[in-house]
Amino acid sequence: MFRLNGDEKSEVIAKCDHLEKLKFSRALPYTFTEHDAFTAASVLNFFQAAEVSIFIVRVLVKLH
Predict the structure, then answer these.
(1) Distance between CA 42 and CA 29 in Å, rounded?
(2) Angle between helices 46-63 and 34-42 (to 10 degrees)
(3) Contact 18, 62 (CB under 8 A)
(4) Phi and psi (nearest 5°) for 17?
(5) pLDDT tens column, 4-55
(6) Domain match, 52 and 64 both
(7) Domain that holds residue 63
(8) 3: helix, coil or strand?
(9) Longest dimension (CA), the chain
(10) DSSP letter string over 11-57?
(11) Do 6 and 25 reside in the same domain of the chain?
């Protein structure tokens, strides 16, 4: 987990419509790498882990 800088925060807000309210926050958000997200998903029960893994892959496909 790491904290975004101001430029990274602006880029995330521009690419992700559902995070638009974040632009009004003074705080810099924390984020996870893909590896961290997969690790977190693996500690959930199997059904939730599978759903989260599929969601992560879909997001990564859209980003590339």
Answers:
(1) 23
(2) 160
(3) no
(4) -55, -35
(5) 999 999 998 898 888 888 889 999 988 878 777 777 767 766 667 777 778 8
(6) yes
(7) 33-64
(8) strand
(9) 37
(10) HHHHH-GGGGGGGG-SSPPEE--HHHHHHHHHTS-HHHHHHHHHHHH
(11) yes
